[in-house]
Design brief:
Blueprint (H helix, E strand, L loop, with lengths): L2 H33 L6 H9 L2 H7 L5 H10 L5 H13 L7 H14 L12 H22 L4 H29 L7 H14 L3 H7 L6 H10 L7 H12 L6 H16 L2 H6 L3 H24 L2
Length: 305
């Protein structure tokens, strides 16, 4: 396989996953505002999760609901529309390697996001619109998982999906902990709703409830999202999928070593101690650096050679 083809497949996987994640985050945060209208940090937190604080501040002076949703919908560099356009462009030149149905769903997603989205900013109809985006992303992913031969094209898409998922999960954990850990006792009831929102933003609520029978609490949520080996969006599971995909590709040893180091660091973490000592933020920074190192090693091995 040509390195440029492998790179496009990888970034198609990343941008498709980013599109779904962004739509899911906007939907969940919109619902949080209805449940907790007096919690002031919700929309600012959403921008922080994406990592595009500087770009947002260049366009808007305040992190109001309308400004954040507009930014997340149509910013030319880092929005739903931008991610979907990047996914489509990367898949356009490699569509002969994918099922035809996947390309058709990609076009549906593209044309759904192509018109002026200003009418979608208001709450009326926003949830339904975001649900359409999520459903199309899930259908497209389903066609890829259910219909692609387990050969190199499939594994590069899988790598993109799981690197992006691991990165997003660490971002959600980091911002949630900075906002929620150590708050005063009178906010306990609000915290329960907010931690539920954290789980819902990663489609993790039901699986968490099956795994943890106790009431929702921050330390258990963080432990689940970081380390649960069975949940597909936990950092540990994503890194395991990356390692598994590497093994099906040639010259994989260097990249495999990088992801295994990241996975061991997650496995050694004692979440309760990190939360008690306020060390979780530094740990998440290190985990994100390890994910970035894995991406760089992947790129050096297969895209730059």
């Amino acid at each position: 396989m040509l390195s440029r083809v492998a790179e496009r497949l990888y970034w198609f996987g990343r941008y498709l996953e980013r599109t779904e994640n962004t739509a899911r985050l906007i939907s969940v945060y919109s619902n949080l505002v209805l449940d907790l209208p007096k919690v002031g940090f919700v929309w600012e937190s959403l921008v922080s999760i994406t990592g595009f604080d500087a770009q947002f501040k260049q366009r808007f002076s305040t992190a109001s609901e309308r400004n954040v949703v507009k930014f997340m919908f149509d910013d030319p560099a880092c929005s739903l529309r931008a991610s979907a356009e990047s996914a489509r462009e990367n898949s356009r030149t490699t569509r002969d390697l994918m099922p035809n149905e996947a390309w058709e769903k990609m076009n549906e997603l593209h044309y759904l996001l192509k018109p002026d989205l200003s009418g979608r900013i208001n709450r009326n109809g926003r949830h339904e619109f975001l649900a359409q985006i999520i459903d199309l992303c899930l259908e497209l992913t389903g066609y890829l998982i259910g219909s692609m031969s387990r050969k190199e094209p499939y594994y590069f898409i899988t790598l993109g999906r799981n690197v992006e998922r691991a990165d997003m999960t660490t971002r959600v954990i980091d911002v949630a902990c900075l906002n929620l850990m150590g708050r005063q006792a009178e906010f306990d009831e609000q915290d329960n709703i907010l931690w539920m929102g954290v789980l819902q933003s990663l489609n993790a609520y039901q699986m968490y409830r099956q795994q943890v029978q106790d009431r929702i609490n921050g330390p258990e949520v963080v432990e689940f999202l970081l380390k649960d080996s069975a949940f597909p969006r936990s950092v540990n599971h994503c890194l395991a999928e990356v390692a598994s995909s590497f093994k099906h590709l040639p010259r994989h040893q260097g990249a495999l070593n990088a992801v295994n180091r990241a996975k061991r660091a997650i496995g050694r973490a004692v979440t309760a101690e990190l939360l008690q000592t306020q060390g979780l933020h530094d740990f998440i920074d290190k985990a994100q650096a390890d994910i970035s190192t894995t991406h760089n090693k992947l790129s050096q091995t297969w895209f730059l050679s």
